[in-house]
UniProtKB/TrEMBL annotation:
It is a multi-pass membrane protein. This is Amino acid transporter transmembrane domain-containing protein. It comes from the Eukaryota. Its main location: membrane. Signal peptide: none annotated. The keyword Transmembrane applies. InterPro entries: AA_transpt_TM. The lineage of its organism: Eukaryota, Viridiplantae, Streptophyta, Embryophyta, Tracheophyta. GO terms for molecular function: L-amino acid transmembrane transporter activity. Residues 30-435 form the Amino acid transporter transmembrane domain. It comes from Hibiscus trionum (Flower of an hour).
Protein backbone atom coordinates (compact mmCIF):
# COMPACT_ATOMS: atom_id res chain seq x y z
CA UNK A 1 0.00 0.00 0.00
CA UNK A 2 1.30 3.42 -0.90
CA UNK A 3 1.70 5.95 1.86
CA UNK A 4 -0.97 8.13 0.27
CA UNK A 5 -3.59 5.36 0.03
CA UNK A 6 -6.37 6.25 2.45
CA UNK A 7 -9.00 3.68 1.50
CA UNK A 8 -10.40 2.99 4.96
CA UNK A 9 -12.26 -0.21 4.18
CA UNK A 10 -9.09 -1.91 2.94
CA UNK A 11 -6.46 -0.45 5.20
CA UNK A 12 -7.87 0.56 8.56
CA UNK A 13 -5.56 1.43 11.40
CA UNK A 14 -7.36 -1.18 13.46
CA UNK A 15 -7.87 -4.60 11.88
CA UNK A 16 -11.35 -6.07 12.15
CA UNK A 17 -11.75 -8.91 14.62
CA UNK A 18 -12.61 -11.43 11.88
CA UNK A 19 -9.32 -10.62 10.14
CA UNK A 20 -7.21 -11.62 13.14
CA UNK A 21 -7.92 -15.30 13.58
CA UNK A 22 -4.29 -15.91 14.34
CA UNK A 23 -4.48 -13.49 17.24
CA UNK A 24 -7.96 -13.83 18.60
CA UNK A 25 -8.36 -17.60 18.36
CA UNK A 26 -11.78 -18.51 19.79
CA UNK A 27 -12.65 -14.87 20.49
CA UNK A 28 -16.31 -14.37 19.53
CA UNK A 29 -16.63 -10.72 20.35
CA UNK A 30 -16.50 -8.53 23.44
CA UNK A 31 -19.40 -8.45 25.89
CA UNK A 32 -21.59 -5.41 26.47
CA UNK A 33 -20.38 -5.04 30.06
CA UNK A 34 -16.73 -5.34 29.03
CA UNK A 35 -17.22 -2.60 26.44
CA UNK A 36 -18.89 -0.34 29.02
CA UNK A 37 -16.06 -0.85 31.52
CA UNK A 38 -13.36 -0.12 28.91
CA UNK A 39 -15.08 3.02 27.61
CA UNK A 40 -15.84 4.25 31.15
CA UNK A 41 -12.20 3.72 32.11
CA UNK A 42 -11.12 5.71 29.06
CA UNK A 43 -13.34 8.59 30.19
CA UNK A 44 -12.53 8.63 33.90
CA UNK A 45 -8.83 9.37 34.18
CA UNK A 46 -6.90 12.09 35.96
CA UNK A 47 -9.49 14.73 35.02
CA UNK A 48 -11.83 13.52 37.72
CA UNK A 49 -9.60 15.19 40.33
CA UNK A 50 -9.76 18.60 38.64
CA UNK A 51 -13.56 18.82 38.51
CA UNK A 52 -14.24 19.83 42.16
CA UNK A 53 -12.04 22.93 41.70
CA UNK A 54 -14.23 24.08 38.80
CA UNK A 55 -17.09 24.48 41.26
CA UNK A 56 -15.03 27.06 43.15
CA UNK A 57 -15.28 29.27 40.05
CA UNK A 58 -18.69 28.29 38.67
CA UNK A 59 -20.66 27.49 41.81
CA UNK A 60 -22.47 24.20 42.35
CA UNK A 61 -25.56 24.83 40.22
CA UNK A 62 -23.81 26.07 37.06
CA UNK A 63 -20.97 23.56 37.50
CA UNK A 64 -23.26 20.51 37.76
CA UNK A 65 -25.39 21.81 34.86
CA UNK A 66 -22.31 22.06 32.64
CA UNK A 67 -21.16 18.54 33.58
CA UNK A 68 -24.55 17.23 32.39
CA UNK A 69 -24.48 19.42 29.26
CA UNK A 70 -21.02 18.17 28.25
CA UNK A 71 -22.18 14.55 28.64
CA UNK A 72 -24.98 15.18 26.13
CA UNK A 73 -22.65 17.06 23.77
CA UNK A 74 -20.11 14.23 23.90
CA UNK A 75 -22.83 11.68 23.15
CA UNK A 76 -23.86 13.75 20.12
CA UNK A 77 -20.27 13.99 18.83
CA UNK A 78 -19.69 10.23 19.18
CA UNK A 79 -22.99 9.53 17.43
CA UNK A 80 -21.75 11.61 14.49
CA UNK A 81 -18.45 9.73 14.58
CA UNK A 82 -20.16 6.32 14.43
CA UNK A 83 -22.74 7.30 11.82
CA UNK A 84 -20.21 8.80 9.42
CA UNK A 85 -17.87 5.83 10.00
CA UNK A 86 -20.63 3.45 8.88
CA UNK A 87 -21.24 5.56 5.75
CA UNK A 88 -17.52 5.57 4.94
CA UNK A 89 -17.15 1.86 5.86
CA UNK A 90 -14.31 2.98 8.15
CA UNK A 91 -13.34 0.75 11.05
CA UNK A 92 -11.04 3.29 12.68
CA UNK A 93 -11.00 6.97 13.53
CA UNK A 94 -7.98 7.35 11.26
CA UNK A 95 -9.85 5.63 8.45
CA UNK A 96 -12.73 8.09 8.82
CA UNK A 97 -10.41 11.11 8.78
CA UNK A 98 -8.60 9.64 5.78
CA UNK A 99 -11.91 9.15 3.97
CA UNK A 100 -12.98 12.75 4.64
CA UNK A 101 -9.68 14.62 4.27
CA UNK A 102 -7.19 12.22 2.68
CA UNK A 103 -3.73 11.29 3.87
CA UNK A 104 -3.11 14.52 5.77
CA UNK A 105 -6.39 14.23 7.66
CA UNK A 106 -5.37 10.80 8.90
CA UNK A 107 -1.88 12.02 9.85
CA UNK A 108 -3.35 14.99 11.75
CA UNK A 109 -5.56 12.60 13.72
CA UNK A 110 -2.63 10.31 14.52
CA UNK A 111 -0.44 13.21 15.67
CA UNK A 112 -3.26 14.51 17.88
CA UNK A 113 -3.60 11.10 19.55
CA UNK A 114 0.18 10.98 20.00
CA UNK A 115 0.25 14.41 21.69
CA UNK A 116 -2.84 13.79 23.81
CA UNK A 117 -2.17 10.24 24.99
CA UNK A 118 1.55 10.56 25.64
CA UNK A 119 0.86 13.74 27.62
CA UNK A 120 -1.90 12.04 29.60
CA UNK A 121 0.18 8.95 30.37
CA UNK A 122 3.19 10.99 31.51
CA UNK A 123 0.87 12.96 33.80
CA UNK A 124 -0.50 9.65 35.15
CA UNK A 125 3.01 8.44 35.93
CA UNK A 126 4.00 11.73 37.57
CA UNK A 127 0.92 11.61 39.81
CA UNK A 128 1.64 8.00 40.76
CA UNK A 129 5.20 9.02 41.66
CA UNK A 130 3.90 11.97 43.72
CA UNK A 131 1.43 9.77 45.60
CA UNK A 132 3.82 6.92 46.38
CA UNK A 133 7.17 8.72 46.69
CA UNK A 134 6.17 12.28 47.54
CA UNK A 135 7.03 15.57 45.89
CA UNK A 136 8.68 18.88 46.76
CA UNK A 137 7.57 22.26 45.43
CA UNK A 138 8.25 25.77 46.60
CA UNK A 139 10.54 24.46 49.32
CA UNK A 140 7.70 22.38 50.81
CA UNK A 141 8.00 18.60 50.88
CA UNK A 142 4.84 16.49 50.64
CA UNK A 143 5.59 13.00 51.90
CA UNK A 144 4.46 10.08 49.77
CA UNK A 145 2.53 7.12 51.09
CA UNK A 146 5.62 4.88 51.21
CA UNK A 147 7.62 7.49 53.11
CA UNK A 148 4.76 7.91 55.56
CA UNK A 149 4.60 4.17 56.17
CA UNK A 150 8.27 3.16 56.15
CA UNK A 151 10.23 6.39 56.43
CA UNK A 152 12.83 7.46 53.87
CA UNK A 153 14.20 4.36 52.10
CA UNK A 154 16.26 4.03 48.93
CA UNK A 155 13.57 1.84 47.39
CA UNK A 156 10.96 4.52 48.06
CA UNK A 157 12.57 6.98 45.63
CA UNK A 158 10.52 8.14 42.64
CA UNK A 159 12.72 6.58 39.94
CA UNK A 160 12.84 3.15 41.56
CA UNK A 161 9.11 3.14 42.40
CA UNK A 162 8.16 4.12 38.85
CA UNK A 163 10.59 1.55 37.43
CA UNK A 164 8.99 -1.24 39.49
CA UNK A 165 5.50 -0.01 38.55
CA UNK A 166 6.45 0.09 34.86
CA UNK A 167 7.98 -3.39 34.86
CA UNK A 168 5.49 -5.03 37.19
CA UNK A 169 2.18 -3.41 36.14
CA UNK A 170 2.32 -1.25 33.01
CA UNK A 171 4.36 -3.61 30.82
CA UNK A 172 2.30 -6.78 31.47
CA UNK A 173 -1.00 -4.96 30.92
CA UNK A 174 0.37 -3.35 27.74
CA UNK A 175 1.05 -6.80 26.23
CA UNK A 176 -2.61 -7.55 25.50
CA UNK A 177 -3.46 -7.37 21.80
CA UNK A 178 -7.23 -7.00 22.32
CA UNK A 179 -8.73 -4.17 24.29
CA UNK A 180 -11.43 -6.55 25.54
CA UNK A 181 -8.69 -8.37 27.46
CA UNK A 182 -8.51 -5.31 29.70
CA UNK A 183 -12.17 -5.53 30.75
CA UNK A 184 -11.37 -6.93 34.21
CA UNK A 185 -8.68 -4.35 35.00
CA UNK A 186 -11.08 -1.68 33.70
CA UNK A 187 -13.83 -2.95 36.00
CA UNK A 188 -11.42 -2.77 38.94
CA UNK A 189 -10.38 0.73 37.88
CA UNK A 190 -14.01 1.89 37.89
CA UNK A 191 -14.47 0.22 41.31
CA UNK A 192 -11.47 2.17 42.68
CA UNK A 193 -12.95 5.44 41.38
CA UNK A 194 -16.19 4.55 43.14
CA UNK A 195 -14.21 3.72 46.31
CA UNK A 196 -12.74 7.24 46.21
CA UNK A 197 -16.27 8.59 45.79
CA UNK A 198 -17.62 6.56 48.73
CA UNK A 199 -14.79 7.67 51.05
CA UNK A 200 -15.26 11.33 50.07
CA UNK A 201 -19.02 11.03 50.52
CA UNK A 202 -18.59 9.41 53.93
CA UNK A 203 -16.19 12.12 55.14
CA UNK A 204 -18.53 14.88 53.89
CA UNK A 205 -21.58 13.33 55.59
CA UNK A 206 -19.65 12.94 58.87
CA UNK A 207 -18.53 16.59 58.79
CA UNK A 208 -22.04 17.73 57.84
CA UNK A 209 -23.47 15.86 60.82
CA UNK A 210 -20.86 17.44 63.11
CA UNK A 211 -21.64 20.91 61.74
CA UNK A 212 -18.11 21.65 60.51
CA UNK A 213 -19.05 22.26 56.87
CA UNK A 214 -20.26 25.61 55.59
CA UNK A 215 -22.58 25.90 52.59
CA UNK A 216 -20.52 26.45 49.41
CA UNK A 217 -21.39 28.94 46.68
CA UNK A 218 -24.33 27.85 44.54
CA UNK A 219 -23.67 30.43 41.80
CA UNK A 220 -20.50 32.09 40.49
CA UNK A 221 -19.30 35.27 42.16
CA UNK A 222 -19.07 37.75 39.27
CA UNK A 223 -18.19 41.26 40.42
CA UNK A 224 -16.21 42.68 37.50
CA UNK A 225 -14.94 41.87 34.01
CA UNK A 226 -11.91 39.99 35.36
CA UNK A 227 -14.06 37.63 37.41
CA UNK A 228 -16.33 37.15 34.38
CA UNK A 229 -13.45 36.05 32.15
CA UNK A 230 -12.22 33.78 34.92
CA UNK A 231 -15.38 31.68 34.44
CA UNK A 232 -14.10 30.54 31.05
CA UNK A 233 -10.75 29.29 32.36
CA UNK A 234 -12.43 26.17 33.78
CA UNK A 235 -14.24 25.26 30.56
CA UNK A 236 -11.35 23.22 29.07
CA UNK A 237 -11.53 20.89 32.09
CA UNK A 238 -15.25 20.37 31.52
CA UNK A 239 -14.93 20.14 27.73
CA UNK A 240 -12.28 17.42 27.95
CA UNK A 241 -13.84 15.53 30.88
CA UNK A 242 -15.51 12.99 28.59
CA UNK A 243 -12.91 12.63 25.81
CA UNK A 244 -12.87 8.96 24.79
CA UNK A 245 -13.34 9.18 21.02
CA UNK A 246 -9.94 7.66 20.17
CA UNK A 247 -11.04 4.37 21.76
CA UNK A 248 -14.60 4.18 20.39
CA UNK A 249 -13.67 2.30 17.20
CA UNK A 250 -11.31 -0.05 19.06
CA UNK A 251 -14.14 -1.10 21.38
CA UNK A 252 -16.80 -1.17 18.63
CA UNK A 253 -14.64 -3.42 16.41
CA UNK A 254 -14.51 -6.10 19.12
CA UNK A 255 -18.13 -5.83 20.27
CA UNK A 256 -20.36 -8.84 19.54
CA UNK A 257 -23.06 -6.65 18.02
CA UNK A 258 -21.88 -3.40 16.46
CA UNK A 259 -25.40 -1.97 16.82
CA UNK A 260 -24.90 -2.03 20.60
CA UNK A 261 -22.17 0.60 20.50
CA UNK A 262 -24.59 3.50 20.77
CA UNK A 263 -26.02 2.02 23.96
CA UNK A 264 -22.51 1.31 25.28
CA UNK A 265 -21.64 4.98 24.78
CA UNK A 266 -24.79 6.26 26.51
CA UNK A 267 -24.47 3.90 29.50
CA UNK A 268 -20.78 4.80 29.90
CA UNK A 269 -21.42 8.54 29.66
CA UNK A 270 -24.37 8.39 32.06
CA UNK A 271 -22.36 6.37 34.59
CA UNK A 272 -19.38 8.71 34.39
CA UNK A 273 -21.64 11.78 34.63
CA UNK A 274 -23.12 10.45 37.88
CA UNK A 275 -19.63 9.77 39.29
CA UNK A 276 -18.45 13.23 38.18
CA UNK A 277 -21.44 15.00 39.74
CA UNK A 278 -21.14 13.18 43.07
CA UNK A 279 -17.36 13.62 43.36
CA UNK A 280 -17.63 17.26 42.30
CA UNK A 281 -20.48 17.98 44.72
CA UNK A 282 -19.03 16.22 47.78
CA UNK A 283 -15.43 17.18 47.04
CA UNK A 284 -16.34 20.87 46.84
CA UNK A 285 -18.72 20.56 49.78
CA UNK A 286 -15.91 19.05 51.84
CA UNK A 287 -13.17 21.57 51.06
CA UNK A 288 -15.09 24.64 49.83
CA UNK A 289 -12.92 27.55 48.72
CA UNK A 290 -9.84 25.62 49.87
CA UNK A 291 -10.38 23.04 47.08
CA UNK A 292 -7.11 22.57 45.20
CA UNK A 293 -6.79 22.42 41.42
CA UNK A 294 -6.02 18.74 42.01
CA UNK A 295 -8.36 17.74 44.85
CA UNK A 296 -6.00 14.90 45.73
CA UNK A 297 -3.73 17.53 47.32
CA UNK A 298 -6.49 18.26 49.86
CA UNK A 299 -6.07 14.72 51.18
CA UNK A 300 -2.52 15.52 52.30
CA UNK A 301 -3.69 17.39 55.40
CA UNK A 302 -5.60 16.69 58.61
CA UNK A 303 -9.27 16.29 57.73
CA UNK A 304 -10.37 17.00 61.26
CA UNK A 305 -12.07 13.62 61.72
CA UNK A 306 -11.13 10.32 63.39
CA UNK A 307 -8.74 8.12 61.39
CA UNK A 308 -7.89 11.09 59.14
CA UNK A 309 -4.43 9.74 58.26
CA UNK A 310 -5.81 6.31 57.37
CA UNK A 311 -8.54 7.78 55.16
CA UNK A 312 -6.03 10.08 53.43
CA UNK A 313 -3.83 7.09 52.60
CA UNK A 314 -6.84 5.07 51.42
CA UNK A 315 -7.85 7.86 49.03
CA UNK A 316 -4.36 8.36 47.64
CA UNK A 317 -3.54 4.66 47.25
CA UNK A 318 -6.88 3.88 45.59
CA UNK A 319 -6.38 6.79 43.20
CA UNK A 320 -2.84 5.72 42.30
CA UNK A 321 -4.09 2.16 41.68
CA UNK A 322 -6.93 3.58 39.58
CA UNK A 323 -4.45 5.41 37.32
CA UNK A 324 -2.28 2.31 37.00
CA UNK A 325 -5.28 0.41 35.61
CA UNK A 326 -6.38 3.27 33.34
CA UNK A 327 -2.88 3.38 31.81
CA UNK A 328 -3.18 0.35 29.46
CA UNK A 329 -6.58 1.47 28.15
CA UNK A 330 -5.13 4.85 27.09
CA UNK A 331 -1.94 3.15 25.87
CA UNK A 332 -3.81 0.77 23.52
CA UNK A 333 -4.97 3.37 20.92
CA UNK A 334 -1.67 5.25 21.27
CA UNK A 335 0.30 2.19 20.17
CA UNK A 336 -2.01 1.46 17.24
CA UNK A 337 -1.92 5.02 15.92
CA UNK A 338 1.85 5.41 16.35
CA UNK A 339 2.25 2.20 14.35
CA UNK A 340 -0.13 3.49 11.68
CA UNK A 341 1.78 6.77 11.52
CA UNK A 342 5.26 5.28 11.10
CA UNK A 343 4.42 1.94 9.40
CA UNK A 344 1.38 2.71 7.20
CA UNK A 345 2.17 -0.05 4.70
CA UNK A 346 2.91 -2.84 7.17
CA UNK A 347 0.58 -5.69 8.06
CA UNK A 348 -1.67 -5.29 11.14
CA UNK A 349 0.35 -4.67 14.30
CA UNK A 350 -1.25 -7.58 16.19
CA UNK A 351 0.15 -10.01 13.59
CA UNK A 352 3.76 -8.87 13.99
CA UNK A 353 5.12 -9.83 17.41
CA UNK A 354 8.46 -8.14 16.82
CA UNK A 355 6.96 -4.80 15.79
CA UNK A 356 4.37 -5.05 18.56
CA UNK A 357 7.11 -5.53 21.18
CA UNK A 358 9.35 -2.78 19.77
CA UNK A 359 6.56 -0.18 19.53
CA UNK A 360 5.23 -1.06 22.98
CA UNK A 361 8.62 -1.02 24.72
CA UNK A 362 9.67 2.17 22.93
CA UNK A 363 6.55 4.05 23.99
CA UNK A 364 6.69 2.80 27.58
CA UNK A 365 10.36 3.83 27.79
CA UNK A 366 9.54 7.31 26.41
CA UNK A 367 6.73 7.78 28.95
CA UNK A 368 8.94 6.52 31.81
CA UNK A 369 11.74 8.93 30.88
CA UNK A 370 9.29 11.81 30.52
CA UNK A 371 7.84 11.19 33.98
CA UNK A 372 11.31 11.09 35.55
CA UNK A 373 13.06 13.94 33.78
CA UNK A 374 10.20 16.42 33.47
CA UNK A 375 9.57 17.77 37.00
CA UNK A 376 6.09 19.10 36.21
CA UNK A 377 4.36 19.12 32.85
CA UNK A 378 1.03 20.57 33.91
CA UNK A 379 1.54 23.83 31.98
CA UNK A 380 2.68 21.98 28.85
CA UNK A 381 -0.19 19.52 29.24
CA UNK A 382 -2.72 22.37 29.37
CA UNK A 383 -1.27 23.89 26.19
CA UNK A 384 -0.86 20.71 24.14
CA UNK A 385 -2.86 17.87 25.67
CA UNK A 386 -6.07 19.80 26.23
CA UNK A 387 -5.94 21.29 22.72
CA UNK A 388 -5.33 17.89 21.11
CA UNK A 389 -8.09 16.35 23.23
CA UNK A 390 -10.59 18.95 22.10
CA UNK A 391 -9.64 18.29 18.48
CA UNK A 392 -10.20 14.56 18.97
CA UNK A 393 -13.49 15.01 20.80
CA UNK A 394 -15.20 17.81 18.96
CA UNK A 395 -13.34 19.57 16.13
CA UNK A 396 -12.57 16.46 14.05
CA UNK A 397 -16.08 14.89 14.30
CA UNK A 398 -17.58 18.29 13.47
CA UNK A 399 -15.21 18.77 10.52
CA UNK A 400 -16.13 15.32 9.13
CA UNK A 401 -19.81 16.24 9.45
CA UNK A 402 -19.38 19.54 7.60
CA UNK A 403 -17.22 17.85 4.94
CA UNK A 404 -20.10 15.36 4.48
CA UNK A 405 -18.38 13.33 1.79
CA UNK A 406 -21.24 10.81 1.62
CA UNK A 407 -24.08 13.38 1.72
CA UNK A 408 -25.77 12.05 4.86
CA UNK A 409 -25.67 15.06 7.20
CA UNK A 410 -28.84 16.90 8.13
CA UNK A 411 -29.30 20.59 8.92
CA UNK A 412 -29.34 19.67 12.62
CA UNK A 413 -26.01 17.86 12.21
CA UNK A 414 -24.41 20.87 10.55
CA UNK A 415 -25.67 23.30 13.20
CA UNK A 416 -24.40 20.98 15.94
CA UNK A 417 -21.03 20.70 14.20
CA UNK A 418 -20.66 24.49 14.02
CA UNK A 419 -21.58 24.81 17.73
CA UNK A 420 -18.98 22.20 18.68
CA UNK A 421 -16.22 23.91 16.67
CA UNK A 422 -17.03 27.37 18.07
CA UNK A 423 -17.17 26.03 21.64
CA UNK A 424 -13.92 24.08 21.28
CA UNK A 425 -11.97 26.92 19.63
CA UNK A 426 -13.27 29.58 22.02
CA UNK A 427 -12.58 27.64 25.21
CA UNK A 428 -9.09 26.69 24.11
CA UNK A 429 -8.19 30.22 23.07
CA UNK A 430 -9.35 31.46 26.47
CA UNK A 431 -7.41 28.67 28.20
CA UNK A 432 -4.23 29.39 26.27
CA UNK A 433 -4.57 33.13 26.92
CA UNK A 434 -5.23 32.68 30.65
CA UNK A 435 -2.41 30.15 31.06
CA UNK A 436 0.03 32.39 29.18
CA UNK A 437 -1.02 35.39 31.27
CA UNK A 438 -0.60 33.44 34.52
CA UNK A 439 2.80 32.17 33.35
CA UNK A 440 4.12 35.68 32.57
CA UNK A 441 2.69 37.13 35.78
CA UNK A 442 4.39 34.34 37.75
CA UNK A 443 7.72 35.06 36.05
CA UNK A 444 7.41 38.81 36.64
CA UNK A 445 6.70 38.21 40.31
CA UNK A 446 9.66 35.84 40.68
Amino acid sequence: MAAGDTTPSKHPLLPKQQDEDGVHGEFNGASFSGAVFNLSTTIVGAGIMALPATMKVLGLILGVALIVFMAFLTDASIELLLRFSRAAKATSYGGLMGDAFGKYGKILLQVSILVNNIGVLIVFMIIIGDVLSGTSSGGIHHAGVLEGWFGQQWWGGRTFVLFVTTIGIFSPLACFKRIDSLRFSSALSVALAIAFLVITLGIAIFKLASGTITMPNLLPDVTDLTSFWKLFTVFPVLVTAYICHYNVHNIANELKGSTQMGLVVRVSLASCAVVYILITFFGFLLFGDATSEDVLANFDTDLGIPYSSLLNDAVRVSYAAHLMLVFPVIFYPLRLNIDGLFFPSARPLARSNTRFALVSSGLITLIFLGANFIPSIWDAFQFTGATAAVCLGFIFPAAVTLRDRHAISTKKDRVLAIVMIVLAVFTNLVAIYSNALAFFEKNEGA
